[in-house]
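Run log, item B.
One chain of 394 residues. Sequence copied directly from the ordering sheet:
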Amino acid sequence: MVQGLQKLCIDSISRHWQSFISNGYQLPEVYLVDLLDCCMENDRISVLHQIFHSKETFLQLVDAKDRSVALYKSMQLLIDSDIPIHEELTDLFIKEGKKTEYSRLIKVCEFLMECGWYKAAGKLLSHLYRTMSPLGNRYNILIALTHLISTNIAECKFKRAKDAFVKANTFYDPLKDKDFNVGVLYAEECFRHYCLSNFNEADEWADRALSEIFLPQISESLPTCLCITVLRRAAKVYINTRRFDRAEALIRHAVDLAAVLYGTSHPLYADTLQDYGFCLLHLDLVSECVVVYSKAVEIIDSVFGDNNMKTAVAHEDLAYATYVYDYNNGNYAKSLEHAERSIAIVNNLLAPDHLLHASTSRLRALILEELAFDEINTRRKDKLLREGTYLISF
């Protein structure tokens, strides 16, 4: 009875949201999540749009310690409905100047990053950094620069990522910045070197990052979400420098922390599973790797669908793992399906000259060449080889 009445109330509020807000009313966070679910279930796109533009309501949702999956799904639904809400929010917060606390705006940036909209997050972070006073909150400056490294890496802008690191590392003072765990900064520098295939340097920065967060146990002042990021970054580097035991221990710990913090249906849990799958693949535990990657794809697909780069990356990872798993039997149908889905998303979302096209194209070329070797029909064999060669040269 109570739940039925609550549902009716939420439904009524969703149908009269503008009046509700204009009269100064606010809903507790737990009911805001129900409101998002109600709007999605009833396809009330315009109401969702209004909720995201109701600044205090949106900030209340973003401020939550564990952001609801409904918030990510709502964001993606708006984008799928041709409403560029990620760009609108970025422009909104830039135009309003200093009316919102920097700490809250940084959380908005973090949310945009978690949704895979790195360009929008980077634009807002750059604006925040430019408008922050060096004499202001030092933690906000350092965390903004740290996130700028991450967004620039995601956009393959490695020079800008390096510049942001140099600024943060120069600004950091261990005596003045005791509330900022510099291991988080070092983890991003470690990941930058990893992406540039500077594995020895990446390994050194991973060691430094871990030495900062384990003092001798995990620092209590370090938020769990940031700790997970450091563990993930270091584990991925250690796989490439063949420190397998340490890599596996770190990523398993990250998965456990993510499961407790986010739950096992959350996209941030799926992000951690992807790194765990990467570890399993390089430990030659291919069947286990496919299971883990498949779970990550299932979660990410359910939240973001086919209009998000996070989905493209997840399918690319699963495509390669499936290719390795099916190598002996020569059945590449599943791996080709995942690769083509990844390519379709990348082609839809990125400029033709974007660096990330190369990765998905090479993978599809690899699969097509294997299909060509097994093909009896000469004409079809030549066609597969030509297509594979074209993709590699793309």
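Observations after the first pass:
- The chain has a mean pLDDT of 88.
- The CA atoms of residues 274 and 289 lie 9 Å apart.
Flagged for discussion on Thursday.
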